[in-house]
Design brief:
Layout lengths: L8 H16 L5 E10 L11 E2 L1 E14 L4 E6 L6 E4 L16 H13 L8 E7 L9 H18 L11 H18 L7 H8 L4 E6 L4 E6 L7 E7 L7 H18 L19 H26 L4 H20 L6 H12 L4 E5 L6 E7 L3 H15 L5 E5 L7
Parallel strand pairs: 4-6
Antiparallel strand pairs: 1-3, 2-7, 3-6, 4-5, 7-8, 9-11, 9-12, 10-11
The structure holds adenosine-5'-diphosphate and magnesium ion.
Length: about 400
């Protein structure tokens, strides 16, 4: 497989239904799914109070669920081995005496977080998971998993007297986003800024969202690349990335320290021409990335909203993406050779713009390419990776897709 094709909704539903029946011996009561996401621009800005511009992928994580009359959650995933079992009354935070080991944390963590919000006690659940969102590729398989089960818990909650489906409104979906963030931070123990869950739950087909992390407000902006003969090609570098978590935490801490020194709550509060002389060289570079990346993201959104994606406007959009990559490479220092080679090769083969996406240290790059050059870019990146002795890259055709439901 070199192109990772998204499953149709039917295919995903059939897969999880079969897995559910085989594992639990009865038919699931409902099937839910949630997309992975790709961030078009605005990287490492969410935890700095800035803007990001993500969209939902056509690649989704599917959950087949059955409601239980106790507090037990039995889980199986086609991507993991064996049936796991967790009692919702025994869920502890990641740093407590009884943390939830491994991937079930992302599932039961959402129920735990909803209860922390004051929602009704959740029933137990049998759940079977399958997904075509690649793991650890910077495309947020973790958020896709949380959001797919968040929607399932939501449907159970809506059956309770006096409760209603949170997915029916953007406000309700925002509450689910908060629960998913808490599941990932507090139960799975993985730091995350919140962009991923907002994208998976609040995006719309055909659009990106401009997400303001300061107040979690969003604006939907149409992003119909097909109409102008363009494609957003995702290059999953499949580079090994062991350092990611520690490095992410380090970047976050540096940003917080810099904001404190400069007397602002978030780096996003700084003026574009703020005096950074008080900062160390390292802090200055990280801060410069955040300030310039926020400006690029706003400019990108303004261009998208300003007219057709052709000519000068299109060239400028591409330029902003490529500048974003340079800033992440030089100032934020989160790229790896695979990401740099993917971006430079895409640009040499006619991409209008290209950049790494997601947290970095491996993961994926994206390239804005005219449809007739997509195959050329794929072939060139594959060949160049082979020359460098990198892992074989995978490719995904990204199209702004539907949210969790
Ligand atoms: P990503 O960039 O893909 O979100 P993360 O490291 O944040 O990478 O999340 C990947 C983790 O999420 C996996 O190691 C696993 O614990 C969990 N996960 C994601 N998708 C699934 C799935 N389909 N089945 C089981 N666990 C999953
Ligand atoms: Mg993740």
């Amino acid at each position: 497989m070199i192109v990772n094709e998204a499953w149709s909704l039917d295919e995903g539903a059939n897969r999880v239904s079969d897995l559910f029946e085989k594992s639990f011996g009865y038919s699931p009561h409902a099937i839910h799914s949630a997309p992975g996401r790709v961030n078009v621009i605005g990287e490492h800005t969410d935890y700095n109070g800035g803007y990001a511009l993500p969209m939902a992928l056509p690649h989704r994580t599917f959950a087949a669920v059955g409601k239980r009359d106790d507090r037990v959650v039995r889980l199986i995933s086609a991507q993991e081995t064996g049936i796991r079992e967790v009692n919702l009354d025994e869920v502890g935070t990641y740093d407590s005496d009884n943390p939830v080991e491994g991937w079930p944390a992302y599932v039961v963590g959402v129920a735990w977080a909803l209860e922390q919000q004051g929602k009704p006690k959740m029933p137990g659940m049998d759940v079977a998971i399958d997904s075509c969102v690649p793991f650890g590729a910077g495309l947020s398989s973790s958020a896709a998993l949380e959001c797919a089960v968040a929607v399932a818990w939501d449907a159970f909650m809506a059956e309770e007297d006096g409760w209603y489906a949170l997915i029916a409104s953007d406000k309700g979906r925002s509450e689910l986003v908060e629960a998913c963030i808490s599941a990932e931070n507090d139960i799975a123990g993985a730091p995350t800024g919140g962009m991923d869950q907002a994208a998976s739950l609040r995006c719309e087909e055909g659009s990106v969202i401009l997400l303001d992390s300061k107040d979690s407000s969003i604006r939907h902006i149409p992003f119909d690349l097909e109409a102008v003969g363009l494609e957003l090609l995702v290059i999953d570098t499949r580079a090994p990335h062991q350092l990611a978590d520690g490095q992410y935490a380090e970047r976050r801490a540096t940003c917080e320290a810099s904001a404190k020194k400069l007397g602002v709550k978030y780096l996003a509060d700084l003026e574009p021409d703020a005096d950074l002389s008080e900062l160390s060289e390292n802090e200055r570079k990280r801060t410069r990335h955040v300030i310039t990346e926020i400006a690029r993201t706003l400019k990108f959104a303004e261009l998208l909203e300003g007219g057709e994606l052709t000519g000068e406007r299109l060239a400028e959009l591409g330029q902003l993406m490529t500048e974003s990559h340079e800033s992440l490479r030089v100032d934020y220092e989160v790229t790896v050779p695979e990401l740099d080679v993917a971006v430079s090769t895409a640009l040499e083969n006619g991409a209008i713009g290209a950049r790494m996406t997601g947290g970095g240290f491996g993961g994926s790059a994206i390239a804005l390419v005219s449809v007739d050059k997509v195959d050329q870019v794929i072939d060139a990146v594959k060949a160049r990776f082979e020359e460098h002795g990198f892992n074989e890259p995978h490719f995904l055709h990204a199209k702004p897709s539907a949210p969790a439901n």
